[in-house]
Amino acid sequence: MLSGAGWALVAAALAAGVTGAWSPCGFSMVETLAPHGYARRLRTTLQACATFTAGALAGGVITFGGLALLGQTLGAGGPAAASAAAVAALAAAVGEARGARIVPQIRRQVPESWRRVLPVPLAAGLYGVLLGLGFTTFILSFAVWALAAVSVALGEPVLGAAIGLAFGVGRALPVIALAPAAGTERGAAAAAAMAERPAILRGLRVADAAALLGCALVLAASPASAADIVVRGATDPSADGDSLAWQQPRGAGLLVRPGATAPAGLPGSHPAVGGGHVAWIEPGRIVVADAAALAPVAAVPAAGADAVAVTVTRVAWRAGGSLHTSPLADPAAVASVAPRRGERLGRPALAGDRLLFDVGGRRIEQVDLATGTRGVLRDDRRGVQLTNPSATGGALLYVRETSRRQQLRLGALDQPGTDRTIYATVPTGRFDRGYEPGHRNRRHRKIKLPRQPRPGVHITLWSTALAPGAAFVTRLRQRAGRRPDALILRVAR
């Protein structure tokens, strides 16, 4: 599902696509598809309109979806990216409002010969692709450049594809609306208005400016633009509605309940909340209690447990490299998930009757506790790490780390294509420039390194928690010669 910023960008893309029809290529498309033109009859015109629309949609997705995928590969997303996207949209809005000349401009039209040598529906489809690509013909709006920059900056392929679809729709609509009527009195009047009334194009560019300004405002206020510190000196957040628990380094767990003026200390460590319960680890066992009264409701034998999750009916924990679950009504009915050869299982998370965990940072898996079926929720084969899942209300939160960025990603639990970055920071490691000081050459001078941690500092995004209105993540920071420090960040969803 698109966010508010996403819908604003889709609206701007639609407006930019419509504006792009006021070009030599747009006029040429109306003539090509018209019944009295190369199509020769209305049936062929309608077929050509369908293929033209499909081509425009495909071209838009290729361009803007591809740019967003490039941004994701480069580690885009996060506060700086949202700010850069807002600046790009604002700059384009100013240019559109002033009616400035489009620069840089691409002075190229579609190949005229295609409509003479190819079947008209095929030629129309290919023309649609070229116009949908956006950068293969004349550009009549700064919005095209701005949307390209925003797609790369945000690095969200699903959003990029949505922008591309909206742009393709905008490119196709004027053409398929006018082409069937071309040759009639009404169609001739509409075509004449397009060609002879500059005020129409000027009005469309003003509409583009308004849409881009809306994008800039929404992006500037985007949830991805800020993260608040919840507590310092704490790790491993766990959320349940307005309740939040965390672990103190070398100490017991703390629980914040709605209406409480201060965190409540817990008798054990590594606390987790869920389903109105709070669980913590004591020597040899896990205790589950009512979160409001802290009255124990179950005690589960769990020697060696080092992480726990709890819901209204079930508790899960990690011990001895394996994951275990047990119904609260029958603590002795333990089901286990053992690591396969060479695997390391991450912290457990519960989503109803599903157990979630990462496998060695390579992928995020789930086990259906009702059937025992094990499957993959997220898998990125491009050498990135996926760790520390948490879930609530059908949403999934996890950490994605590349060589260029660490990202806190949020999406629908069963729909990988909906994932978006809500927070990002520098990578854990550093890049080598690839050459020794004093031995640079012309090729090496062009190497541009991604943003990196400050010298002597290593930053790691770690365990996560998800609430209806916010996401939480542990941020670990290691400074050379010092003990690592930790804090918990809150990011609005």
Primary descriptors:
493 residues, alpha+beta, Neuraminidase, 4-stranded antiparallel β-sheet, 11 helices
Structural description of this entry:
By secondary structure, the protein is of the alpha+beta class. The protein has 2 domains: about 5-225, no CATH class; about 230-430 and about 450-490, Neuraminidase (6 Propeller). The chain is built from 11 helices and 24 strands. The longest helix is centred in the first third of the chain and has 32 residues, at about 40-75. It starts with a helix and ends with a strand. The mean pLDDT is about 85.
Question: What's the arrangement of secondary structure elements?
Answer:
Elements: H1 4-20, H2 24-33, H3 42-73, H4 79-98, H5 114-117, H6 120-133, H7 142-154, H8 157-178, H9 185-196, H10 198-220, E1 228-232, E2 235-240, E3 243-247, E4 253-256, E5 264-265, E6 269-274, E7 277-282, E8 285-290, E9 296-301, E10 305-310, E11 314-319, E12 322-327, E13 335-337, E14 349-351, E15 354-359, E16 363-368, E17 374-379, E18 385-392, E19 395-401, E20 406-412, E21 420-425, H11 442-445, E22 457-466, E23 470-479, E24 485-492
Antiparallel strand pairs: 1-24, 2-3, 3-4, 4-5, 6-7, 7-8, 8-9, 10-11, 11-12, 12-13, 14-15, 15-16, 16-17, 18-19, 19-20, 20-21, 22-23, 23-24
* Uncertain residue ranges: none
Tell me what portion of residues adopts beta-strand conformation: 25-35%
CATH-assigned fold name of the largest domain: Neuraminidase
Q: Give the N-terminus to C-terminus distance in angstroms.
A: 12 Å
- Indicate the mean pLDDT: 87
Can you tell me the overall shape? elongated
How many distinct helices?
11
Give me the count of strands: 24
Protein structure class = alpha+beta
Give the strand order of the largest sheet, numbering strands 1, 2, ... along the chain: 1-24-23-22
> What is the radius of gyration?
28 Å
Helix content: 25-40%
CATH structural class of the largest domain: Mainly Beta
Taken together, the total number of domains comes to 2
From the coordinates shown, what is the CATH architecture of the largest domain? 6 Propeller
Biggest beta sheet summary? 4 strands, antiparallel
CATH homologous superfamily identity of the largest domain: TolB, C-terminal domain
